[in-house]
Amino acid sequence: MGNIIAQSRNYCALGAQHSVLGIRGAVPIIHSGSECVFRLHKGMSFCNGYQGMGYGGGSATPNDNIHRNHMIMGGEARLRELIEGTVKVMRAELYVVLSGCNVELAGDDTSAVVREYRSQGIPIVSADTAGFKGSVYLGHELVSKAIAEHCAIPGLPRRAGIVNLWVSTPYLDPFWSGTIEAIASMLGQIGLKVNLPYGLTSDIRAWRRLPEAEFNLLISPWSGLGTMEYLREKFDTPYLHYPLLPIGAVETRKFLETVADYAGLNRTNVETFISSEETRFYYYLDRASELFARFDSRMPTRFYTIADSMYTASITRFLHQDAGMIAGGAFLIDNPPNKLRASIERLFLDDFSEPFCPVAFMEPENVDIWMREKSDDGIPLVLGSVFDSPIADERAGYYLSIGAPAADRLVLDCHYAGFRGGLRLLEDIYGKVLGLTV
Q1: Of 117, 135, 149, 334, which sits with the fewest C-beta atoms within 10 Å of its C-beta?
Q2: Tens place of pLDDT for every residue, the chain, 438 residues?
Q3: Residue 83: CATH number of its domain
């Protein structure tokens, strides 16, 4: 065996049950073992910012609890019972049936069963999300494609100024909902009308209206590109791919200018909004400059990010460009496709094509080994998940949760996107530093 999974942070494709919960009015129906459902809830929601069950999540998730006898005889009859019972007791605008490893190995034809009920007028779709197929990133794309295939209305006239916004994987990113709200708000301020497939204001109508958009906007280094290609092929909708989550003044200006140019927006209005937010951002950053400039032996000497590609690259760039901090290493643990890794590595280059820091694609349990062998003797700031807090503790450093599982913090609408999100990130970082040094 080449590798042992000691710290599962990307979960399995069945974790897409949380993608369904990220749509208001949608309920997942899980054709799999109950332990899979509950463990995914614990890992992706409860122990990841305490995001809650929602309607149809957690212990209320419809599930047929498949056992060994169903593995032999098949579980399609059990699935029919589950669908009929769920429709009776749980109101929803859309039901999404997800299948797990055991029933797919047994050969259950889940999609055929679902077609029976869809032909009766029940709003129901399915996705084959067996965990052995891949991580929750794959499951999220499978669910997105399945819902778009059956819910989006082909042939709707395209409307200028409307954009479909796609950002984080719901629940896996503990800040996903706040991030979507923040990005949507900024896009609205520069003159776009934002349609949200996922998030607070999402619903099935948003999915029906997907073809109306002038373009799709994907904010992610790699996850979601399959969905963008699917929507382009099916509805002829172009997409803008922005690989970084804009954090702070420098990157957010680039992001908004890129979107404005792509959408053909009035640059005067866009510049007015950007300038106003920059003034506010630098006003507060200047107030903190006395703290940042202190020569204090208790301050972190270097920061290390251990997270998915988007947060690792985006936070590294922000802390380097806006806050002037020194990066010690960036560890990407979301296992992006090999063909895209070179483009992801370029996100860590400065204006002179020099890397901010060493960049490594690795299993998270190997980061501690790297730190022992290659890091300096200074005080580290570790930005990762709760699995990484011992790395900081052993080196008398500081730690902040920025990814799953974030079991040491409650996350409501917190986010690090945009001008204001950058300030929030600095507050959270130095709150940790000052809390341990005062």
Answers
A1: 149
A2: 345 566 789 999 999 999 999 999 999 999 998 999 999 999 999 999 999 998 999 999 999 988 766 666 768 999 999 999 999 999 999 999 999 998 888 888 999 999 999 999 999 999 999 999 999 999 999 999 999 999 999 999 999 999 999 999 999 999 999 999 999 999 999 999 999 999 999 999 999 999 999 999 999 999 999 999 999 999 999 999 999 999 999 999 999 999 999 999 999 999 999 999 999 999 999 999 988 887 677 889 999 999 999 999 999 999 999 999 999 999 999 999 999 999 999 999 876 677 889 999 988 778 878 877 776 778 999 999 999 999 899 889 999 999 999 999 999 999 999 999 999 999 999 999 998 765
A3: 3.40.50.1980
135 and 35 within one domain: yes
Same domain, 352 and 323: yes
117, 151, 185 - which closes a domain: 151
End-to-end CA distance of the chain, in Å? 47
Residues 102 and 33 in one domain: yes
Q: Hunting for tokens 């006395």 — which residue is that?
A: 290
Q: Do residues 233 and 305 both lie within one domain?
A: no
> Within 10 Å of residue 53's Cβ, how many Cβ atoms?
14
- 406: its two tokens: 């974030």
309 and 411 both lie in a single domain? yes
Domains of the chain: total: 3
CA 179 – CA 158 distance, rounded (Å): 26
Domain boundary among 151, 184, 203: 151
Q: Could you tell me if residue 419 is inside a domain? A: yes
Half-sphere exposure of 55 (CA within 13 A, CB side): 13
